[in-house]
Amino acid sequence: MKKRIFSAIQPSGRLTLGNYLGSIKNWIKMQEDYDCIFSVADLHTITVRQNPENFRKNILETYALLLACGLDTKKCIFFIQSHVREHSELAWILECFSPVGDLSRMTQYKDKSNRYSENVNAGLLTYPSLMAGDILLYDTDLVPVGKDQKQHIEFTRNLAIRMNGIYGEIFKIPDAFIPNVGAKIMSLKDPSKKMSKSVESDATIGILDDEDIILKKIKRCVTDSGSKVRFTQGSLTGINNLMTIYSSIKNVSFDEIEKEFENDGYGKFKEQTAKAIIEKFTPIREKFSQIMKNKDYLLREFENNAKIASEIAARKVKLVREKIGFI
Ligand code: TYM
Fold first, then answer.
1. What separation in Å is there between the alpha carbon of 123 and the centre of ligand 1?
2. So what's the pLDDT on residue 224?
3. Cα of 164 to ligand 1 centre, how many Å?
4. Rg for the chain, CA atoms, rounded
5. Does residue 132 line the site of ligand 1, with CB under 6 A?
């Protein structure tokens, strides 16, 4: 039996280099060897107010862009979360087993309720219960994510263990799968902060950014006062961030990078890093514009995939309903 993989991404803006290196890159690899299910997590995104027209566009573009990145529906199931009603149904049930104390201690809840202080809604608080449902519906073994999602996976594990304790074996206990390099790509302007897709600016590289923009952003990104291309363990410097990006894209170690750029300053290294990103993203951008021209194909793909995911999800919800005592 192959291990089951589940992961998802929010259509909350244009996907970034951080999303790619922290998560998508692993999805593409894992679909070759594992039983993979991936999703565009649109239900999660309405915890922040969305303009309906933009939102529709973002959902479709996120779906298309992940196909362009290399998700292949012959090798994995790839659906849009809100098309599979079981996600909402299980989320409600799980909310009733989620301690408010645990929810309110989540880093993302604290961050977002500060950032969107005019709209601190209940969904922002119960977000991890919805995410736990996504994972637990599919008997997931491994969840490939970046470091920022680790706390949510811990929450999912605790919730599953708690419910299994009450009702007997309902859920498989999942593990996070976090890459050694690239699990947290930092902002190009402030390397102490995460690169984030909801803030589009010079601090973030989008997968769809064109070549000139990528080059300009990397050239202008913050480094530090030194000049040598050297990795300093444990420090949040711009050069560490660039080396992490280069290492993850080119699959080379920090030692190898230091040797390669032994006689060069930051200027040359930045140029080569931009080149590596451009080489990776140009074919993706081209494929994306092709896919976006074929709306019928996209519709067919996400409809078929939602049907397949629903069949699996419905079996789990049926079991949960029985265990809880619904008639
Ligand atoms: P989201 O949409 O914020 O991010 C998608 C994936 O990208 C990773 N990521 C990063 N990795 C490295 N560096 C960064 N700067 C960076 N920014 C984002 C995230 O860790 C994530 O893996 N709640 C999730 C979506 C979700 C989900 C799920 C994930 C919903 N249900 C079930 C796993 C399983 C989120 O908001 O990811």
1. 17
2. 80
3. 26
4. 20
5. no
